Amino acid sequence: MKSSQRLAKEYSKIQKSDNEFNISIDSNNILNWKAILKGPDETPFKNGNFEISIKCTDQYPMKPPKVFFNTPIFHPNIHFKTGEVCLDVLKANWSPAWDIFAICRAISLLLSHPEPDSPLNCDAGNMLRAKDEMAYFSMGEMYTQMFAIKENSDKK
Amino acid sequence: MNNFSNLKLFPLLIPEDQTLTKFSGFIQIYNKSFNFRISMKNPQKISTAKIQCNKELENLLIDSKEIISKRLKESENLNSFLLEFSQIIQQKIEPVLRNEINTSFQPKNPIYFQFLFDEINEIGWEKIQLIDENLSKIQINLKDSKNRTIPIFAQIPPEFPFAKPIIEAPFPVSFENDEEMEEENQQNTRNEKITKNQNYKGSFQKVINKITREFDKYQDLWDNLDDFDSNTCVIEPENPTLLEPSRKILFGKHCSIQIVFNIKFPRSVPSIKFFGSDPIILPLKELLKKDINKWDPKNLVRKNLEEILKIEFPKKTSSSLNDFGPECGICFGYQNDGKSPDIFCSNIQCARPFHNSCLYLYLKFQSSDEFGTIYGKCPYCSHEIQTTKPIDFQEKKQD
User: For the FANCL UBC-like domain, which residue ranges apply (chain B) (predicted)?
Assistant: First the structure.
């Protein structure tokens, strides 16, 4: 109950703002949210639209929500197949001070600032650790082209 | 022949034969009647009786079978049992009936509408703010000499005009409006058939006049309340009216101050309670203690407070509420089970408010509590924060 009440408050606040991440509630369950992140400039994800799903439990905000990428993405901290995200604030460093909007912003930042030392995608991590920017960019851009741009244009 | 006395109290219950061991018929509770049959082997031994009843009654009594068999054993004769029995039904049916009254429109005596209409005509339709769909609750807005609106409520019983309406003037003090109403009521019952020209005349108006006469006594209090409502950011009560003699107002960083007015002497020192982070609140408490003798009863309470505390209360603007709102930093709500946030981060830069229960629940995930106190870090600034286990904390929340 408490979690829904808080999420409802967050939602009304997001609706009042300009909602830059296109955050919406998924399928009539206020615990499940969706957002669309735009690939930041100067990253392999530029021009891509990445859909993420945010699943809260009834222990929210005491426990962090689970965040997954629905759109495949080639990023060291995001699992390519499952879409799992490795982000400290979604794990040990969680605090109720975070909200859905802040999570979206944190993930958006993660896209432009990958942490290759705790990789979920070893290939991407290794490329960055070897400082092979060219490989990282070309792989990233290819997958962005394949999933994040094409998918979007299909929908349109 | 004892059994025949049943017939007086339960006229719809008829013996089936001359042995007087079997009775069938109806039992009437309020406006409902239930088909029901009772049979005994021996008219003297009520404990052997068996009861059959219709579905409706059976459903109603489904969980009172034990009581009924107990009453059967205890009762001396059929009559005393039936009295007990009807009482059991009565208890069971009351909540059901109450629901029905709430959900369905009950046809009323035409005289009800006639009198109500006359009453309202006398009060004046322009004063009626709201009439509910059953025509049983009316909100009347009264004006005082300064054109302030004071709502009062009239609850009209279905038996009106034979039963008196209940006037709720949720005033700081209660009114003795009963005397007059009582008189009216007695008159009404005496002359069972009243016509509107004779005995029944504008009891609403009388009560309203009486209440309006009292308004002058509260002018000073209302001046003060008005002053707070228009010049400060009131967070409690949520929709402040002139009827609540207290105000909780927001000032500065997540801090608030609760003022409960002295109704008789509104300009005297009210009871004051601070809510907020200690480093902000403690100096204010000191100031108040030190300079309380500077309180000038000629001034408005707000002016006195502002002068003594050397602060200016912010006006109600959305930005002040958003940035330094009084809401709990964890559940983002203000009221939680009727409680407002009562724990504040002692870091003066942060000063976030939290509900005791929210903070306890969160800290419990981080560390264990020691002797009822739990230590942890503020979710916002990581400053050390501590709380105690709320008295009414529900253990199941942790599962």
Answer: 112-178, 221-316
What is the end-to-end Cα distance of chain A in Å, rounded?
37
In a domain, B146, yes or no: yes
Which residue bears the tokens 């909780």? Answer: B248
Full set of structural domains in chain A with CATH: 2-155 (3.10.110.10)
Mean pLDDT over all residues of chain A?
Answer: 87
pLDDT in tens, B147-184: 888 888 888 887 777 777 777 765 644 444 444 444 44
A118 confidence band (pLDDT: 50, 70, 90) = confident
ipTM over 0.90: no
Kindly report the nearest CA distance between residue B11 and chain A, in angstroms: 53
Best CA proximity match to A103, nearest among A14, A26, A28: A14
Catalytic residue flag (residue A86) = yes
Q: Which of A56, A86, A104, A122 is catalytic?
A: A86
Question: Which has the closest alpha carbon to B200: B172, B219, B181?
Answer: B181
Domain enclosing residue B180, as ranges: 110-213
Residues of chain B neighbouring A6 (CB-CB closer than 8 A): 330-333
Kindly state the helix (H) or strand (E) to which residue A122 belongs, with its residue range. Answer: helix A122-129
CB contact under 8 Å between A95 and B332, yes or no, is no
Query: Residue B314: its pLDDT value, please?
Result: 82
Task: Inspect the interface and report whether the beta carbons of A95 and B333 lie closer than 8 Å.
Answer: no
